[in-house]
From TrEMBL:
Residues annotated as domain Flavin reductase like: 43-188
Compositional bias per record (Low complexity), positions renumbered to this chain: 1-15
Gene3D superfamilies hit by this protein: Electron Transport, Fmn-binding Protein, Chain A (2.30.110.10)
Ranges in a coiled coil: none
The protein's name: Flavin reductase
Pfam family for this entry, one: Flavin_Reduct
UniProt GO MF annotations: FMN binding; riboflavin reductase (NADPH) activity
Similarity comment: family membership: Belongs to the non-flavoprotein flavin reductase family.
Keyword Oxidoreductase: yes
Record key words, sorted: Oxidoreductase
Disordered: region residues: 1-27
């Protein structure tokens, strides 16, 4: 080398870790053998907000929805959000067929809404009051904010689908604290 240093040879380089190399007390190979209950317990230590994804089923012209805690903003330009839905959801095909869906950010007083929308086979909107967002999707009374979207992409991811949706309209709805899901239970945020 021009500065008097020596060039490294291939034998000087540290080899990349292989699949059987140890990292701490665990081997990398053990990553594929993670127990589902342990996975849930560990990831349950990450607190999330809770949303209700709502729409009007075009086949029945009735509101429907589901609860989700896997929701995030994706992009500012263009404005995109994402949420996850289980492959086993019987509600998602109805929502997918709607021209728009609405993400309702639930308040800490709406655990009952979350549980009702998570129940299988029930009338999801029995006893719930709502108004229509500009595109007609249900904005649930008591939600602290709403985001009306059009679904743009669906990605298969294990036993779920990752849904990417373009934000069309959004606004605050009611004052209040968000509903939080943590370690398998619901609560509020005092901050």
């Amino acid at each position: 080398m021009a500065d008097g240093g020596t060039a490294a040879t291939a034998s000087d380089a540290t080899p990349a870790p292989g699949p059987d190399d140890r990292t701490g007390d665990r081997t990398r190979a053990s990553v594929t053998a993670i127990d589902q209950a342990r996975f849930r317990a560990i990831l349950g230590r990450f607190a999330t907000g809770v949303v209700a994804i709502t729409g009007v089923d075009p086949a029945t012209d009735r509101p429907t929805g589901l609860a989700a805690n896997a929701f995030t903003s994706v992009s500012l330009d263009p404005p995109l959000v994402a949420f996850c839905v289980a492959h086993t959801s019987s509600t998602w095909p109805k929502l997918r067929a709607a021209p728009t869906v609405c993400v309702n950010i639930l308040s800490d007083r709406q655990e009952h809404v979350c549980r009702q929308l998570a129940a299988r086979g029930a009338d999801k909107f029995d006893g719930l009051t709502w108004d229509g967002a500009p595109g007609g999707s249900p904005v649930i009374d008591g939600a602290i904010a709403w985001i009306e979207c059009a679904v743009e992409q669906e990605h298969v991811a294990g036993d779920h689908m990752i849904i990417v949706a373009r934000v069309l309209e959004l606004d605050r709805h009611h004052d209040g604290a968000p509903l939080i899901f943590y370690r398998g239970g619901y609560g509020g945020f005092a901050g």
